[in-house]
């Protein structure tokens, strides 16, 4: 026998909210009045499925019950579908939406960010030393596993035999695989070292693992580094080696050993430096998602927790932010404890693919980023400007610029820039939901809050309305007497509704409790 449902009932603003067995549902009392024929002693309850009489003869009770059950089932399916597809965190893909307040039209501003994408489409790559790519002069290579299999040729003058750096970023659906390849270790015992620098000339935020796929054996020693100042200074992200103690005097660790307290620790791992047998063993990873999971849970279901940490911990936010990446290849795969000096053409680096998933950093002031004339830049909202939306637009310095906030979930806080001559400076948005200037609604501009019906914006402070119109944005007709206002002139429905009767409210609550229990 199933346990009796546990119910919790509470009122939030104009909505009745209840929770049964951990499942939440609500009814907006203001909106539900439109389904009531007569809210004072209503004779019938009108639903989206039809009209259900409140009093029926005994002979029709069965029909009424079936109608109620079908209605509840339809609503239940809709609720379940909505809950299934509504995440526990915000997408932050909308910067603003138009709303109606008691004083007229206003903008509801929200924190926003661009969608994550493949960032390798927008980078520049540089190799050091510059002549480290194979093919000049042409060279023949041997397989690491078989020194007598020497049928791989690299020739920079022949397209089919060339292996330039751009082949690390092309589409890998082709066969055979394309890849960049270095010269062989012909100057042994001098180290064969290569720096591969990826530059975006823009701050980006990493959203997924960095993955390098090697066509050759994975290097025995490697370092992944990051820069936050366009390559002027570098800090290590992670060390890789077959023997961390010998290579870097560091104890070997894995990302699974990290905790919330040690998430920012720089570790050396031996997981990606061994020889390979299967294709998946060709990869070297820097685990972004495993670090996210320390706050968001194993399947990243609790992104609200992660966003809260990113919002309040600058070091954590900076850890996942870069302008450049540098791959330092320090020692190629040798396949044995000793290097075969008689066959040095077996030792080289070859990379077939590099994946970097992320988004432009726009400080939560833009939901799109464009690549124009070889440069990435945010399409800024909230009266901000700059490649990262990191300053206020001209004439919008009414308060100091501030980064947007992920909190409160799911909309965040926009922290918009306000006009310079706006009046008293407010340190934060008037509402945690980001409704701009609610305490000073008489604000207009020529970009977003335009005056309507022929009105003109005066000093960004108020609209001067033409004859016959009034409102913050001149959006409604001026009333000359009782009953003379036509709501349709303003393009919106009246906000004055008759109160909802108590019996109807109780009926709605009972119906919603039944819906949740059935679901």
UniProtKB/TrEMBL annotation:
One Pfam family recorded for the sequence: EGF_LMN_ATRN
Coiled-coil stretches: none
The organism of origin for this protein: Scomber scombrus
Biological process annotations from GO: animal organ morphogenesis; axonogenesis; tissue development
Signal peptide: none
Domain of life: Eukaryota
Disulfide bonds: 465-474
PANTHER family tied to this protein: NETRIN-G1, NETRIN/LAMININ-RELATED
Record domain Laminin N-terminal: where: 108-359
Family annotation (PROSITE patterns): EGF_1, EGF_2, EGF_3, LAMININ_NTER
Keyword Repeat: yes
Domain EGF-like: 440-475
Keyword line: Disulfide bond, EGF-like domain, Glycoprotein, Laminin EGF-like domain, Repeat, Signal
Protein name, entry field: Netrin-G1 isoform X1
